[in-house]
């Protein structure tokens, strides 16, 4: 809502308060003033000029040479390119030395050899948006009324020195979509009263009811419809004051009658519609739901197909307006219109919202109906409009009105108690304090001891319950004046859950290993969604996605991490280590919430360590990533429950991928991405992992307990085994562990060799075996026995020979 | 003979003096004090001397020996010290060369902000609650006093999956779920961080996915002044103790009264600049007293209980705190961006 300071001043005495001060006060009391614009501050030296003569520029067909009286000294020559400039016009002239919006400075100049002493201005050049400029002047200069005085201040005349406050209205404050509403709000804030202009006109002897009747069929959508008729109207431009009021409020002036309906809409918040009575097509107004397939061409010349969801005004046979949204072209007020049928009605928000949404039409009228109007102003607005039409368009207002009225407005009264007000707000207000706030709001009230019964005026339909009144009291009292306290009740112990704590540890470990946390989008494309999924599932799809890229919910975090790697690579960031913690979404069937499983994934590529001057470079490979994960599992005390197994996944390198098993359940995988995926994402040598984080973190681990520092020495034995190439270290380790018994503390690979020195098709894997008993020093004999057992098992189960 | 001994001593001392290495010194030692050395030789020839002369020469020989040995020892210490010095000099390195890098990653800046806020409220006795990102229409809207035809639903166009399920548009459904779990019994003190989704085209200031963090307190006798006090603690901790706060009335369907909180602009100190659009204030969060309908729907008696709730956007806070100019940076994960957010930030240190 754009609010003119000068207009507001006509309702409320603003005293010496500057627009800026007023804006600050309004903002602090509840309606955010999003901006203040005073166009004249960017302009100077702009006056009314009288065009005395006009002839075509001798050297340019499209330019005009004008002689303009600026009200002082000799008339001056000004070159003007506007096609509509003519002798006799009063125009806006920027004199040499003038400044225009956009910091444009006007100087005396020569245009195509002819002297030009200034510029004749269009409204756009004066800072008006094109969409509010009257159509007649859209392509040229603006022509002022003939009574404008040459040399006078054009900025004042055009109300450009008015300050316009832009109010950002929340949906509950639709009462301020009118100047009256803003006036009441301002008056409450300032503790002033509101002056409302009276409507005065002399009615003709003819009765409105002889001209028109009204029937409402859709009574639920339209509980109140009134119409008046004004005869002998002369359509023409509105007076300048009215045009500038509209333009400053963001509305384009059309003609006097239409402008008056818009003016009243701004003033009262009540949408009005003017039909050309003679073009209306009948003497009856019938309001009903549209028939399926019925058509109406609206004022914007668009033919609209209607449905039974839409409410229409008809002449008994065909629609003439889409109720509350826009009038029809067939009954539009035109220059030759002489009789006006004026509508003022109450349409429900729901029916207007539906039509407005279906037809993509948001008008000043529809937005007010959608958010609600004050039913008390429906008649007042019609009377005031009739009076103005009589005054400004020379009309004759017929006696009375026609109406359908089934609107029931229950008076709303809210009961509050002083002690509850103070308890709720934390204040210590007295009864007088509260009463004085209610007076400022102009809400009638009754006192019964400390009980206050507040009658809510119809203009504040947003107020329904006690809490609404607490807010009114608090905001007029001033939020700045509220005390600051902290909750006093029972003490609670704050903290994180075990899961949340462990999740923080996960981040710490990964970051400590050089991996940066990433956050990517949960919505992905159908093309990417199934790749890398740990659990195969039908993806959850959005009903109406904004794009294919973000149409389904992810099943894996890896695709978007690869996008991030690719994004980095395109920017020459070759060394990238990223991890993400986020949900994947597994469908539980339509209409049911999916299972959300929290996953941890990572993508690493390039150099893990780069230390050039000592020629130390560690390139990320499978074991880098696996090492980081092992570290993670160890920190989470899960290391002894974890096992790796060669695995195949869509999108992964079949020879370099392992399943990660937690107590024999697959909880994730780690590996290198497939070359075809490298191509798809335009990346190289990327290693990824994805884990079901929730499974990991919900796994019970033994409580932390101290293990004694060994007092007895351990014994180590190294063995090098010759095995088939396909035998894995994991298998060998498993055999060693099972056969080693209680004394074997640890088996660690220290060398792997394939090459000339072993038989083809075989390899050597060497282990260090550590034997230990916490209660005593082991003897060679005992260790020898256990060791023999291991060697035999290795030989039996893996055909492993000791390397000589 | 005595002359000979004196001469030997003089020679030996000169050679000790001249020795420039431990090796040379050792040679001198062997040459003069060794079993085949000249002093031993002199002593062997003592038989030729008279009884009177013998003890005198013997004493002198011992004295010469002692003197040489003493000087050898002195020289030894000196040369050893020199050798150490030399070795140390040889071991000298260029201490200005860069060290061996240890890989280190960072929290995502949004995580940092969320954690900072979580920790602050944990200190005030709050717990951290989380909830699903795909929600029912009921928890996302209806339980928050937004019935199906409520005009405010236009304010947050949503990604629906079916008519009854959607990507949550706010973290508030976690509040509704938590209140339900408490079965009408307070106190509740929670903070709810999480991802939310809205139908917005991604640009410098909009993102179809973003973070939110909300707080909720429900108990007997919770006052609006408690909300104001809590927000003041929050603002001073997160934005710095010197910042002022301002509450403005606002509107949210799930709170009544509703407020928006501004903090004074850090850039201009409140005088007005382009960051605060000339107002001197920057909007940080929305809050309010829990609407009685919301309390009632979640099983709390509004006659007995009251509460407050607040919510804010970590992206916005990160953008203001660190001066990030484009919200998309948070989701493209450029490592040059991610690596900037060290866990140390002096802006809120006291
Ligand atoms: Zn500022």
Automatic annotation (TrEMBL), chain A:
Note describing how the cofactor binds: Binds 2 magnesium ions per tetramer.
Cofactor: Mg(2+)
Biological process terms in GO annotation: phenylalanyl-tRNA aminoacylation
InterPro entries (alphabetical): aa-tRNA-synth_II/BPL/LPL, B3/B4_tRNA-bd, DNA-bd_dom_put_sf, Fdx_antiC-bd, Fdx_antiC-bd_sf, NA-bd_OB-fold, Phe-tRNA-ligase_IIc_bsu, Phe-tRNA-ligase_IIc_bsu_bact
Domain spans labelled TRNA-binding: 40-155
Keywords: Aminoacyl-tRNA synthetase, ATP-binding, Cytoplasm, Ligase, Magnesium, Metal-binding, Nucleotide-binding, Protein biosynthesis, RNA-binding, tRNA-binding
Domain named B5: residues: 409-484
Limits of the FDX-ACB domain: 710-803
One Gene Ontology cellular component: phenylalanine-tRNA ligase complex
Family affiliation: Belongs to the phenylalanyl-tRNA synthetase beta subunit family. Type 1 subfamily.
Oligomer status and interactors: Tetramer of two alpha and two beta subunits.
Protein name, per record: Phenylalanine--tRNA ligase beta subunit
Name of encoding gene: pheT
From TrEMBL, chain B:
Catalysis performed (reactions): tRNA(Phe) + L-phenylalanine + ATP = L-phenylalanyl-tRNA(Phe) + AMP + diphosphate + H(+)
Biological process annotations from GO: phenylalanyl-tRNA aminoacylation
InterPro entries the UniProt entry points to: aa-tRNA-synth_II, aa-tRNA-synth_II/BPL/LPL, Phe-tRNA-synth_IIc_asu, Phe-tRNA_ligase_II_N, Phe_tRNA_ligase_alpha1_bac, Phenylalanyl-tRNA_Synthase, tRNA-bd_arm
Cofactor note as given: Binds 2 magnesium ions per tetramer.
PROSITE patterns: AA_TRNA_LIGASE_II
Cofactor(s) for this UniProt protein: Mg(2+)
GO molecular function terms attached to this record: ATP binding; catalytic activity, acting on a protein; magnesium ion binding; phenylalanine-tRNA ligase activity; transferase activity; tRNA binding
Record-level GO cellular component terms: cytoplasm
EC code: 6.1.1.20
Chief site of localization: cytoplasm
Stated family: Belongs to the class-II aminoacyl-tRNA synthetase family. Phe-tRNA synthetase alpha subunit type 1 subfamily.
PANTHER family: PHENYLALANINE--TRNA LIGASE, MITOCHONDRIAL, PHENYLALANYL-TRNA SYNTHETASE
The protein's assembly and partners: Tetramer of two alpha and two beta subunits.
Protein's UniProt name: Phenylalanine--tRNA ligase alpha subunit
């Amino acid at each position: 809502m754009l609010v003119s300071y000068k207009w507001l001043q006509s309702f409320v005495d603003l005293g010496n308060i500057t627009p800026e001060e007023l804006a600050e006060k309004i903002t602090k009391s509840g309606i955010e003033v999003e901006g203040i614009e005073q166009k004249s501050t960017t302009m100077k030296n702009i006056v009314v000029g009288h065009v005395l003569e006009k002839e075509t520029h001798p050297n340019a067909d499209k330019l005009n040479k004008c002689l303009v009286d600026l009200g002082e000294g000799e008339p001056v020559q000004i070159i003007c390119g506007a096609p509509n400039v003519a002798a006799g016009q009063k125009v806006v002239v920027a004199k040499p030395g003038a400044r225009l919006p956009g910091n444009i400075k006007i100087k005396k100049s020569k245009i195509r050899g002819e002297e030009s002493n200034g510029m004749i201005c269009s409204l756009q050049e004066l800072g008006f948006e094109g969409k509010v400029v009257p159509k007649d002047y859209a392509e040229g200069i603006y022509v002022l009324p003939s009574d404008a005085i040459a040399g006078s201040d054009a900025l004042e005349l055009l109300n450009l020195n008015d300050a316009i406050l832009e109010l950002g209205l929340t949906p509950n404050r639709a009462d301020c979509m009118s100047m009256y509403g803003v006036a009441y709000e301002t008056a409450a804030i300032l503790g002033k009263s509101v002056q409302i202009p009276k409507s005065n006109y002399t009615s003709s002897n003819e009765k409105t009811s002889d001209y028109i009747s009204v029937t409402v069929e859709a009574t639920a959508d339209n509980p109140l419809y009134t119409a008046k008729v004004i005869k002998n109207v002369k359509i023409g431009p509105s007076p300048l004051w009215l045009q500038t009021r509209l333009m400053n409020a963001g509305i384009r002036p059309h003609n006097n009658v239409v402008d008056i309906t818009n003016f009243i809409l701004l003033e009262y918040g009540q949408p009005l519609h003017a039909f050309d009575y003679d073009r209306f097509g009948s003497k009856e107004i019938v309001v009903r739901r549209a028939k399926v397939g019925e058509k109406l061409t609206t004022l914007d010349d668009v033919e609209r197909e209607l449905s039974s969801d839409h409410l229409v005004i008809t002449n008994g046979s065909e629609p003439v307006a889409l109720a509350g949204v826009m009038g029809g072209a067939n009954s539009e007020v035109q220059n030759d219109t002489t009789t006006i049928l004026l509508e003022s009605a109450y349409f429900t928000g729901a029916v207007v919202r539906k039509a407005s949404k279906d037809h993509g039409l948001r008008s000043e009228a529809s937005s007010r109906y959608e958010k609600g109007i004050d039913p008390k102003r429906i008649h007042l607005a019609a009377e005031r409009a009739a009076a103005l039409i009589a005054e400004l368009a020379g009309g004759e207002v017929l006696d009375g009105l026609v109406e359908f009225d089934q609107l029931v407005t229950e008076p709303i009264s809210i009961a509050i108690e002083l002690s509850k007000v103070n308890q709720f707000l934390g204040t210590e207000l007295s009864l007088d304090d509260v009463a004085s706030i209610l007076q400022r709001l102009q809400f009638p009230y009754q006192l019964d001891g400390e009980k206050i019964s507040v009658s809510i005026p119809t203009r504040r339909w947003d107020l329904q319950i006690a809490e609404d009144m607490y807010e009114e009291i608090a905001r007029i009292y001033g939020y700045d004046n509220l005390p600051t306290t902290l909750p006093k009740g029972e003490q609670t112990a704050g903290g994180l859950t075990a899961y949340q704590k462990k999740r923080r540890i996960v981040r710490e470990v990964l970051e400590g290993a050089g991996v940066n946390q990433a956050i990517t989008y949960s919505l992905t494309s159908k093309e990417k969604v199934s790749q890398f999924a740990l659990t195969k599932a039908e993806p959850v799809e959005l009903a109406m996605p904004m794009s294919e890229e973000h149409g389904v919910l992810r099943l894996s975090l890896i695709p978007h991490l690869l996008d991030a790697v690719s994004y980095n690579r395109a920017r020459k960031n070759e060394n990238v280590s990223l991890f993400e913690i986020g949900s994947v979404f597994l469908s539980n069937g339509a209409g049911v919430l999916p299972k959300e499983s929290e996953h941890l994934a990572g993508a690493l590529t390039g150099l893990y360590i780069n230390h050039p001057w000592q020629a130390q470079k560690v390139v990320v490979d499978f074991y880098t990533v696996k090492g980081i994960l092992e570290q993670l599992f160890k920190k989470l005390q899960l290391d002894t429950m974890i096992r790796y197994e060669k695995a195949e996944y869509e999108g992964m390198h079949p020879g370099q991928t392992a399943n990660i098993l937690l107590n024999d359940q697959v909880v994730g995988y780690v590996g290198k991405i497939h070359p075809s995926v490298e191509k798809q994402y335009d990346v190289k040598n990327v290693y990824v992992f994805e884990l079901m984080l929730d499974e990991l973190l919900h796994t019970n681990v033994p409580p932390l307990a101290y293990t004694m520092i060994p007092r007895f020495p351990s014994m180590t034995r190294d063995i090098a085994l010759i095995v088939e190439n396909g035998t894995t270290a994991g298998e060998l380790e498993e055999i060693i562990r099972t056969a080693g018994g209680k004394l074997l503390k640890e088996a660690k690979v220290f060398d792997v060799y394939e090459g000339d020195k072993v038989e083809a098709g075989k390899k050597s894997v060497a282990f260090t075996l550590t034997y230990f008993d916490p209660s005593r020093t082991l003897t060679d004999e005992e260790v020898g026995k256990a060791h023999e057992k291991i060697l035999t098992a290795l030989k039996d189960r893996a055909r492993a020979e000791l390397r000589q | 003979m005595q002359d000979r001994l004196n001469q030997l001593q003089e020679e030996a001392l000169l050679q000790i003096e001249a020795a420039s290495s431990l090796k040379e010194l050792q040679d001198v030692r062997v040459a003069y004090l060794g079993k085949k050395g000249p002093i031993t030789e002199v002593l062997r020839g003592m038989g030729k001397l008279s009884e009177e002369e013998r003890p005198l020469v013997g004493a002198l020989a011992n004295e010469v020996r002692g003197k040489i040995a003493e000087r050898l020892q002195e020289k030894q210490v000196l040369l050893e010290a020199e050798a150490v010095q030399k070795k140390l000099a040889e071991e000298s390195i260029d201490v200005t060369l860069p060290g061996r890098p240890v890989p280190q990653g960072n929290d995502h800046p949004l995580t940092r902000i969320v954690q900072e806020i979580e920790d602050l409220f944990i200190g005030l006795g709050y717990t951290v609650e989380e909830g699903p990102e795909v929600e029912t229409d009921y928890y996302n809207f209806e339980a928050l006093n937004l019935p199906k035809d409520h005009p405010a639903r236009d304010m947050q166009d949503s990604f629906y999956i079916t008519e009854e399920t959607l990507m949550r548009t706010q973290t508030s459904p976690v509040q509704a779920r938590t209140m339900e779990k408490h079965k009408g019994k307070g106190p509740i003190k929670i903070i709810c961080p999480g991802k939310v989704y809205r139908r917005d085209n991604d640009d410098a200031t909009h993102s179809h996915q973003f973070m939110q963090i909300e707080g909720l307190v429900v108990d007997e006798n919770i006052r609006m002044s408690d909300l104001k006090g809590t927000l003041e603690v929050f603002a001073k901790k997160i934005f710095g103790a010197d910042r002022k706060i301002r509450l403005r009335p606002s509107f949210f369907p799930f709170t009544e009264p509703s407020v928006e909180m501004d903090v004074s602009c850090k850039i201009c100190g409140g005088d007005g600049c382009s960051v605060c659009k000339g107002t001197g204030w920057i909007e940080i969060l929305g809050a309010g007293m829990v609407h009685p309908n919301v309390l009632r729907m979640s099983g709390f008696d509004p006659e007995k209980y009251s509460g407050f709730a607040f919510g804010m956007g970590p992206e916005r806070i990160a953008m203001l705190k660190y001066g990030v100019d484009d919200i998309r940076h948070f989701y493209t994960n450029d490592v040059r961006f991610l690596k900037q957010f060290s866990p140390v930030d002096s802006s809120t240190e006291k």
